[in-house]
Amino acid sequence: MPIAPVTLSGAHVQLVPLDPAHHDGLVDAVRDGDLWRLWYTTIPSPDGMAAEIDRRLRLQSEGTMLPFTVQNADGRIVGMTTYMNIDQAAPRLEIGFTWYASSVQRTPLNTEAKLLLLTHAFETLECLAVEFRTHVHNLQSRRAIERLGARLDGIMRHHLRMRDGTIRDTAVYSITAPDWPAVHSHLSWQLERPRS
Question: Which of 69, 88, 89, 168 supports an S-S bond with 160, CB 3.0-4.6 Å?
Answer without folding.
Answer: 168
